[in-house]
Amino acid sequence: MKTSNEGKRILKYISRFLTDYAPYIRSCSDHTLRNYKTALDQYLEWLEDVQNIRVNTLTADSFHSEKIELWIAWLVNNKGQSKTTANVRLSSLRVFIHYLSRQDPKYRYLSLEAKEVRPLKTPKRKIHGISREAVKALLSVISTSTKTGKRYLILISLIYTTGARLDEVLSIQLDDIHLDNENPYIILLGKGSKYRNVPLVGNIVKMLSYYISSFHVNSSEGTNYLFYTSHKGKNQKISQTAVRKQLNKYAFEAHQICPQCPEKLHPHQLRHAKATHLLEDGMSDVQVAEFLGHTGLHTIQDYVDVNLDQKRKALDTLKDEYDYQQRKLWKENDNSLRLIAGTK
Predict the structure, then answer these.
(1) Which of 19, 82, 320, 331 is most open to solvent, judged by the fewest CB atoms within 10 Å of its CB?
(2) Quick one: 156 exposed, middle or buried, by C-beta within 10 A (0-12, 13-18, 19+)?
């Protein structure tokens, strides 16, 4: 069967998006890359299994807003996904369609249509911060008798101290650290490729100085990652999956001595905790928003809600995160959309 040139071209764009653009041009985190791949895989699955579309019938019409809306409903009603997850899939698909529109101007209208697809309404997600006592317990169980323990003590301390996102901390390079200044600081690369300077105070300065002198003895290039893992003789950025696994290990141990520390802990909860504690210490909403690298105050309001909720709980008591792997699966004689695009 003769394959349409448009279908092949679109699938090649998907493959390039996943293997070249997203990981190297956008420098997305492992988590984001997985979201992109999952969304595109599920969209192609829906096109094949529900819409009966094959390579020879795949066209721009396959990405119209009406089809996207049907796909979102299918994710919830047939795949059993939550509305929140479906919205994440929608967001990921939009990024690809925007990429497609930039590669070929004739697809620009698809990007405009995709923006008009409204996300599903979901209940406001409550942010679960952790107490100062829980943070102390978490850090106390990390043994510094091993190289791994020393690395994660600094890494987790830095996430909490700076209120940074996990990928921001893992992306820190030696040139981003300024410990010799009168007022030490660190440069973080946040969302939207925006840089911000975060002051370093207290023991974290000494801890970082010790870590760098111990872990970067033979490699002091400024572009080297602060936190790295060795693979085939080369130093690479530690994966978010590895950090989440280690953090959960420490959280489980900390929970045994401090029930306030949850048995499972996400790195972002440390960021939430820092925001909450800064608000408790009297820092204004605007200052906290700037410290965390937020562009608006709406997210900070969530931290205020958590703070009040924690206080209510205290009064009641008185009354009684697959390493993304690239693979090229283009096969000229295979009509499976997912195999050709490299999402399956």
Answers:
(1) 320
(2) buried
Place of tokens 């530690």: 238
End-to-end CA distance of the chain: 22
- β-strand 228-231 against 177-178: which pairing, if any? unpaired
Residue with tokens 């996904």: 81
CA distance 145 to 343: 42
Q: What pTM value is reported for the model?
A: 0.57
DSSP class of residue 266 equals -
Q: For residue 297, what is the DSSP state?
A: S
Total residues belonging to the chain: 344
Tell me the CA distances in angstroms from 203 to 44, 191, 225, 274, one per residue in order: 51, 27, 21, 16
Q: Let me know: does 163 contact 274? Beta carbons within 8 Å.
A: yes
Q: 57: phi > 0 → left, psi -120 to 50 → alpha, else beta; which?
A: alpha
Query: What is residue 8's predicted lDDT score, i.e. its pLDDT?
Result: 92
Q: Could you give the domains of the chain?
A: 5-123+328-341 (1.10.150), 132-267 (1.10.443.10)
Average model confidence (pLDDT) for the chain? 83
